Amino acid sequence: MTTRQETARSTRLRTIANRYPAPTFFALALSISWGLWIPVLMTQSSATNLHILPGGFGPALAAIVLLWVRGSSIRAWLREGFEWRVGTRWYLVALGVPVLAGSAMGGIFVATTGDFAAAQVARIVPTYPVALLLVTFVGGGQEELGWRGVALPTLQERFDALTASVVIGVVWAVWHLPLFVFDVPGYGGRSLLLYGFLVIGFSIVFTWLYNSTDGNIFLAMVLHGGVNAASGIGGAFVTDLSVVNIPVLAAYAAPVWVVAGTLILRYGRETLSADSTLGECTNEADDSEQSPSTTQKAL
């Protein structure tokens, strides 16, 4: 391939990425993750977290690729997204909401079964900080570089915050499809529709946190890490989940949607936040006329 052909192809790719950033990101995330998951899951009779770990980085890798293709500054994007000087209350929100939701899920289990494994809860609570740390940076937390770091601000250039949240929630759920199809522990045997309902609720909460902190990706990562880790606390409330007579995902979704519904009623669908303008729909300018920092905001 000649230099002229390579330049033409690069220009076409950038044009597509600039014109359709959200679809491009979603296509990349699904392609990378499914491309890593499916071959492994087809050859493993019993997949573990280690088997699915590489594919979990699909959204983060897709975000970086999209930024690179669009000519945006990855360094500026990371610097702005990882600004640590935000109000203490937002750290408390990111750390506290998952614990409250997980505990509420456990409370539903106890109320419906009459079983409360207090000793089991006492054993798992001290391990929660370690689980939170690992999941935030190695597990699901790093997905937020893509879902909230790129997809959310991109969609909010064209849609209100609630619509953007629902779109991300749907894609986020579908992204997990191979894990349901191949019966990966934690996903196999459960309802993808219920999972999607849960994830859309969480997506609304994530949007509220992201918009309220002027696009802080790090806090979204902490919240995501807590969401995954806190489900273990909820499950520990009963001796064995097999005694629970309601779907686990429904029990987790109930408190999450109480929070999500409250946020919608309180702040409205446009921004889902009282303090941010990130949710307002604006016309995206030509990337060639933007500075790296401005381009990052448009993403």
Please state the oligomeric state of the protein chains shown. Answer: single chain
Counted up, domains total 1
Estimate what percentage of residues fall within beta strands: under 5%
SSE series: HHHHHHHHHHHHHHH
Distance between the termini: 31 Å
Query: Biggest β-sheet: count, sense, barrel?
Result: none
- The low-confidence runs, each spanning 5 or more residues with pLDDT under 50, are 278-299
Assign an overall shape.
globular
Strand segment count: 0
Number of helices: 15
**Given the helix and strand composition, which structural class is it?**
mainly alpha
Helical content (DSSP H or I, runs of 4+): 55-70%
Mean pLDDT: 89
How large is the radius of gyration? 20 Å
What do these coordinates show?
The protein is built from 15 helices and no strands. The protein is mainly α. The chain has one domain (3-298). α6 (88-113) runs parallel beside α13 (217-235). The radius of gyration is 20 Å and the shape is globular. Keywords: Membrane, Transmembrane, Transmembrane helix.
Brief summary of the model shown:
The protein contains 15 helices and no strands. The chain has helices at residues 3-19, 21-43, 49-52, 58-70, 74-81, 88-113, 118-124, 128-137, 144-155, 161-175, 177-181, 192-212, 217-235, 248-267, 292-298.
Please render the helix and strand layout as text.
Elements: H1 3-19, H2 21-43, H3 49-52, H4 58-70, H5 74-81, H6 88-113, H7 118-124, H8 128-137, H9 144-155, H10 161-175, H11 177-181, H12 192-212, H13 217-235, H14 248-267, H15 292-298
